[in-house]
# Entry
Amino acid sequence: RRWRINDNLPGSADFCPLVRRTPAVEQALAFDLNDALKDLDNAFGADILMRTASWLTFKESRASFLIEKESDQGDRIQRFAHVIAQYCGQLDDPLSEESLHTIQQGILGQDALGLGLRRSPVFVGQSTMREDIVHYIAPHYEDVPRFMQGLKAFEEATKGAAPLARAGVIAFGFVYIHPMRDGNGRIHRFLINDTLNRDGAIPDGVILPVSATITSSMDFRVGYDRTLDLFSKKLMRRYAGCYRFGELKTYEDGTRSNFIFSDYEDARFAWRYPDLTEHVLYTGRVIEHTVRTEMADEARVLVLFQRAQQQLKEVVEMPDQDASRIIRSLKENGWQISGKLKKNFPLFEDDATSQRIVEAVRSAFETEQ
# Structure
């Protein structure tokens, strides 16, 4: 007797995640992203998504550095914003080694060392006065190509499935493989938007500031760390006594490391078959909040700002750039005219004109929509 096997597994032997269709997951996946974006258009204007695109891209980039506890990274924030705008949904195969090299180079800069798939061991941890604490161990660098092929197999096998689930699995699967020497976290969050774009869940040019949502509240920030820990803590409990720090060695990609893990082969099953149920649930929560709250708030601010510009120009005609500077200064200084504003704009020497300008701008923000 012959048997036909229906291979409907979401991946391959190199990477095949589990996502349990719990009631909570089903509810998260029921969120209609396209409808929610249309609601924004209906509420704030048909082109609101395009008008906020540049700012939302920059906001996503800036928040991504906050997640990694890096601030005051002006040039790097601009570079990552450029990468998001240029490559999100545009690369033929975003998980290929060539594409990842391109994304990483855009994030880190042309002169960054050790670009491409890593050729050295890596762990996520922290240093204290007494010791190095290891929170997570990534797969052996020799296994990285096969795990990435497995992740690509998942991407191929699940095309047409729920975009939110695919985005969560691809993004978190990537960060656990940790294939790059640097930039893994930013690429991980880039892949959320990239997957949603490829699946047609968001239009070209629209970026969901998911990193801004993650940093927007303690609940989401702690939830992000807790979600990452779901896999890493189980791995570390099993292999807590299997790593050590030995002699410092320089690896092929230029990394100098003394980290030694003795059970890569035994641990392969964990990296191959992760349970990413909670990761998909968290991704769904973040995306819904991003659209319903973060993007709605930004759209509301933009509408008010444009109203203020219009009312300001009814008092005194001026270029948009000058109007924006005046509006920002007045708003930041509690509707008071600063000395710097008077110095840069002599029109504020006239008290009557000044009063009309302040009232025009303030009323735009205080009038209910």
The chain has two domains: 23-117+140-230+271-296, 316-366.
